[in-house]
């Protein structure tokens, strides 16, 4: 479960529960005839003591760029415990107009990054965002090697 990749979506802790498990929870709540609280604990087993973390973002998302800049201070101390992989978000634009695809996308709408007004420069086109994401991706790859 997630937002649309802009980082501006889900603001409360959320989880998905299947219909069968949901029915069990509802039946238990009805059985007790009083308010029921569900507590969920997420335990991750990592036999190698390493946490794998991906951050999906766009270079147009100033908040994500600020996070990466701040997080970089801690990477040296965390690098033996954390496998951090930044990833760039793109959208497929199957229902967009031809004009929009030309302005915002590559490969006839297969790779799009519309500017959702997150940056101060609303004049930045999706093609420019994707180009910057690719440039940064190449920098990340060179820094890892």
What does this structure look like?
This protein is of the alpha+beta class and 145 residues long. The chain has a domain at 46-144. The chain has four helices and four strands, in the order αβαβαββα. A two-stranded parallel sheet has the order 1-2. Strands 3-4 form a two-stranded antiparallel ribbon. The chain is flat and about 60 Å long. The two termini are 32 Å apart.
Q: Could you say which structural class the secondary elements and strand pairing correspond to?
A: alpha+beta
Low-confidence stretches: none
What would the principal axes of the Cα set say about the shape? flat
What is the helix content?
A: 25-40%
Oligomer: single chain
What is shown here, in short?
The chain has 145 residues and is an alpha+beta fold. It has 4 helices and 4 strands. The radius of gyration is 21 Å and the shape is flat.
